[in-house]
Design brief:
The chain is α/β, with parallel strands linked by helices and 351 residues long. It folds into 2 domains: 211 residues, Rossmann fold, CATH 3.40.50; 90 residues, UDP-galactose 4-epimerase, domain 1 (Alpha-Beta Complex), CATH 3.90.25.10. 43% of the residues lie in helices and 16% in strands. The strands form 3 sheets. It has a 7-stranded parallel beta sheet with strand order 3-2-1-4-5-6-10, with helices on both faces. Strands 7-9-11 form a 3-stranded mixed beta sheet. Strands 8-12 form a two-stranded parallel sheet. It is globular. Bound molecules: nicotinamide-adenine-dinucleotide and 2'deoxy-thymidine-5'-diphospho-alpha-D-glucose. 2'deoxy-thymidine-5'-diphospho-alpha-D-glucose binds next to helix 6 and strand 8.
Length: 351
């Protein structure tokens, strides 16, 4: 990659981060890719077992909330590029433990910004702080309309408020100290390696185990879904061709009401498991709604589409089918991440 040598990816052991790390390690053999992750419940180095022995890959077990350790890592490894994904990412957990989200998503981001500003201040040329954010910072839409890059921030959950705050800090470091930055705001990702607390992998696991499928409220909430590898491709494109100080919205042009998505998932699962159509749908159970539940997210991704020629490579039906196949072929992965603390979380969240 032109003018980039030491690329730091934070949160690279998580869902999206692991796909980003794999893509960068494989594509840029002349760059050193550092994966900095504290390995919370959501971090799993098995997500990267296929590339862990590559010469241009190094794992750093560090916590972004620890300012001194982060500053030392910047001094030691001389990162010239940061792709920042490390975060607490689950809305439901942010409702039960908002402070954890403030610590990691706000203070953790600030620690990275401080360390980058300190190391780079003599010369910002060819440096980049690329912050990965979410469409949830824009709040909720009614039945119509789309989030554009200029939609005002209006977050409703502790998670989205913490992400919005971190986005503001990144922009403020750009304006105040001249730190070169880019931000992208993406819609709901799905695909291999997603922790089964999020809708799609949770429901795949419950269908396999023939457990209830807990649909919040009336199920008429709408999300825009993007296959995770398409997000990783967009991130790589923005990293190499994005313009400084810009925001890029990334989305799948793919809106689904939760209940319709769940029914499609049930249909595909019945087919793959050799069960009569309609079997898994019987597991659908309407449960208490999520507090502050945003009605609808929908991204206008025309800027990245026209400026960087990016668009999703798979349809939702294809992506969902690949995702189900991955989970069916990786039962050991699922069993490992759903033992221990997961059982406690599940009980507290759903019973
Ligand atoms: P994830 O929860 O799967 O992974 C987060 C990773 O960050 C884990 O590996 C975890 O160990 C690490 N981490 C958490 N706290 C840390 C800390 N204090 N120090 C170091 N590492 C820490 O999350 P994800 O779904 O892959 O999301 C990654 C990023 O993308 C997040 O910033 C999220 O806000 C954003 N995002 C996610 C989605 C989505 O649909 N999942 C959509 C848009 C944006
Ligand atoms: O929009 C981007 C965001 O998408 C990311 O920033 C977040 O990190 C990511 O977690 C995701 O947030 P959501 O809250 O939209 O995703 P989740 O999978 O938790 O829920 C998707 C929808 O499904 C939402 O309307 C809530 C509903 N849901 C979720 C769960 C876990 C249920 O009905 N039942 C459930 O058990």
């Amino acid at each position: 990659m032109k003018n980039k040598k030491n690329i730091l990816v934070t949160g690279g052991a998580g869902f999206i981060g692991s796909h980003v790390v794999r893509l960068l390690v494989k594509k840029y053999s002349s760059c050193q890719i550092y994966n900095l992750d504290s390995l919370t419940y959501a971090g799993n180095l098995e997500n990267l077992s296929d590339i862990e022995s590559k010469n241009n890959y190094k794992f750093l077990k560090l916590d972004i909330t620890e300012a001194e350790a982060i500053s030392e890592a910047f001094e030691t490894y001389k990162f010239d590029t940061v792709v920042h994904l490390a975060a607490e990412s689950h809305v439901d957990r942010s409702i039960t433990d908002p402070l954890a989200f403030a610590r990691t998503n706000i203070m953790g981001t600030l620690n990275l910004l401080q360390a980058a500003a300190k190391l780079w201040k003599a010369d910002f040329k060819d440096k980049l702080f690329y912050h990965i954010s979410t469409d949830e910072v824009y709040g909720t839409l009614g039945e119509t309309g789309l989030f554009t890059e200029t939609t005002a921030y209006d977050p409703n959950s502790p998670y989205s408020a913490s992400k919005a705050s971190s986005d503001h800090f990144v922009r403020a470091y750009g304006e105040t100290y001249g730190l070169p930055f880019i931000i992208s705001n993406c819609s709901n990702n799905y695909g291999p390696n997603q922790f089964p607390e999020k809708l799609i992998p949770l429901f795949i696991n419950n269908i396999i185990l023939e457990k209830p499928l807990p649909v919040y409220g009336d199920g008429n909430y709408t999300r825009d879904w993007l296959y995770v590898i398409d997000h990783a491709i967009a991130i790589d494109l923005i990293l190499s061709e994005g313009k400084l100080k810009q925001t890029y919205n990334i989305g799948g042009f793919n809106e689904w009401k939760n209940i319709d998505l769940v029914k499609l998932l049930c249909k595909q699962m019945d087919f793959k498991l050799g069960k009569p159509t309609g079997t898994s749908e019987q597991l659908i159970t309407y449960v208490k709604d999520r507090p502050g539940h945003d009605l609808r997210y929908a991204i206008d991704a025309s800027k990245i589409n026209s400026e960087l020629d990016w668009s999703p490579s798979v349809t939702f039906e294809e992506g969902l089918s690949k995702t189900i196949d991955w989970y069916l072929n990786n039962e050991a992965w699922m069993e490992k991440v759903t033992s221990g603390d997961y059982l406690k979380y599940y009980k507290e969240q759903y019973q």
